[in-house]
Structure formats: C-alpha cells, structure tokens
Amino acid sequence: MFEILTANEYVTSYGEMLVQIIGSAVLGFLIGWDRYSKSKPAGIKTYMYVCASCCLITLVSIHSVMHFAEISDNIMMDPMRLAAQIVSGLGFIGAGVILKDGFNVTGLTSAAMIFFVGGVGIGIAAGFYGLSIIAVITTVILARVGNYIEDRMDAKEEK
Length: 159
Hints:
mainly alpha, 5 helices, 159 residues, single chain
C-alpha cells in the first residue's frame, strides 16, 4: 500500500485514471463540505475542482513523459515538473481567500486547505492512494479536535 513505484512500474489503464480523477474529486468534495459546513471561504466546488484538476494535471504530466519516451530515446522529460508548477497556482488561488482588515486576518486556514487539497490530488495521481486518504482522514480529525480546543479556549477567555 505504501510502496514506492519506479517509472517502469507506474503504468495505469484509463480505468484506473478515471478512478483516480473520481477519487480525488470525492476527497476534494469531502474537504470542501467540511469547510462549507463551517461557513468558511471557498466551498465544496472549489475544493473539488482544485483536487481533481491537480490530479488531472499530474496524470497528464506523468503519462506524457511515458508516451514521449516511447517515441524516442532522445527525449528527456521530468514527470513531476508540471506537477511542481501546480504549487504556484495553488498559492495564487490561496491568496484570493485571505482577507486582512486591520489586525484581523481571515482565510488562512482556507488557503492552507486549498494547498493541501492540491497535494491530495497530486498524491492520488502519482499512485499514493493510501497516503492521500490517510492524510485527508488525519487532517479532518485533527481539524475537528482543533476546533474543539479553540472553542474551549475561547469560552474560557469570555469568562
């Protein structure tokens, strides 16, 4: 489940790629639902699109390398170069949800979640299903624990 695949071992069918896209969209949907239920910026569709698009871009990048490598031995490509550029785009999208009003800053968690959900999409596309699912489950659980702790601390401060 957590083994690392070499380029020669990473060959997927279109069926598996569809499962990867659908799986990343579902995970993005679940994370977006969590944020939407708390009335936070960037809701269900945003997270779903970010996760699925990151997965798609990574799949295209990985499979383009394999496709063009079969055509000629002289073609050298880095399969994760395009995926690495996703990070810049995620930073741009994340910056759009951060708002500052005096000393009050909002949207930082939503921006971090957008960055995270992009990583989930990349992880699924790269074949790290278990790792991606565990990351989502862990962060959702810890976010709930964090909310509980913050609520308790806020209640103490109000007394």
